[in-house]
Amino acid sequence: FGSGGDDPDGTGVDLENMYYLAKGKKDDNPEAALGDFKAIVGLEEEKGEWGFKALKQSTKLLYLVLHRQADALETYKQLLTYTKSAVTRNYSEKTINNILDYVGGGKGGKIDVDVLEKFYEATRTALKEAKNERLSVKTNLKLAKLWLDRGEYSRLKRLLADLQASTQQGGDEDQSAKGTLLQEIYALEIQMYNVTKNYKKLKEIYYASAQVTSAISHPRVVGVIKECGGKIVDAKKKQWEAKPLKDFFSSFHNYDEAGSPQRIQVLKYLVLAYLLMGSEIDPFDSQETKPYKGNPQIKAVTDLVTAYQRREVHEAEKILRENQSTFTDDPFIKSYIGDLLRALRTQYLIALIKPYTRLDLSFPSKTTEH
C-alpha cells in the first residue's frame, strides 16, 4: 500500500507499524515495548495520534505491569500535553478516565495517597488549561469518592469546598448543572459525616439539599440523601411519622434503580419505620418491595414482620436474639430495638387484657414471662 500524497516520506505509516509491533511485545518483553513506545514519541515531529497512543501504553505498562508509579506519573503528564490538539476531545477524555480508574482502583497495587493526588492534580491543571470544565468537575468528583473510600476526610473536605465554590461561578443559564453538582457534593458530605458520626452536620446538609430545586440527580445520589432524611428522627421524642417512612421508601426505590447493594439495608430501615409507627400495612405488599420478600438477606426481617403482626412478642424477641448481624450490628437499627420491643409488648398486653373487665395484675406479668 502506498502512503499517499499526505505522507510522502512514509513517517506516519512507520510510526503506525512501530506502534503495533511494540504493542505485540507488551506481554513477553514489557521493557522492550516501553523502549519502542518511547522511540515513537521521539520520532514524531509534531504531537500526534501515535505519540499519544504510545504514551497511553507506556503509562499503562509502567503502572500496571512494571509497578513504577513515579515513572507512570511522568509519562501521564506528557500524555496530557497531547490532549489540546493531537487527538479528539472524546478520545482524550476516555483515555484520561481509564487511566484514573486503574490508578485509583488499586489495580497496580497499593498507591501512596500523595502519588494519587499528583495524578489528579496533573489532570486538573491540564483540564483547566484546556478550559474543559465539565471533565474537570467529573474528575474532582471521582477523586472525592476515592478520598471518601480511603477515609481521607481532611483531603475530602478541602476538595468538596473547592467544588462548592465552583457552583457560585457562572451565570444563571446553567442552574440545573449547578444543582446537580450540589446534590453530588451533599451526598458525599452525608456519607462522610455519617461515618464520623457528626449528626449536627448531617441535619444541616440534609436540609440544605432540600433547598436545591434545579437538579437532575443520579438515583444513587437521591438514595443517599433520602436515607439521611429518613434517619433524622427527633432523638428525644423519636417521632415516627409519615416523613421517615416516605424518605426510606424513596431511598430504597432510588438505590434499587441504581443497582446499589445499600437497598437491602435501607429496606430494613423501611420495615423498622413501619413497625415503629404501629402500621398494620405489610411493608412487603408494595410493587417495589414485594420481589425482596424472599431475599435470604432479609429473611429475619420478614419473620419479624410476621411475628409483629401476630403480636407474638416471645417469637419477635427470639428472632432479634438469633439474628444480631441483621439487627443489632447496625447502629441505627440497634438504637430503636428497645422502642420496637416496647411497642410490641404494649400491643401484646392490650390484646391480652382487652376481653376482661377485671383482672389480677399477676396475670399479665406471668403471661409475659419467658
From TrEMBL:
Its name, as the record gives it, is MYC1
Q: Which gene encodes it?
A: myc1
List residues of the PCI domain: 237-370
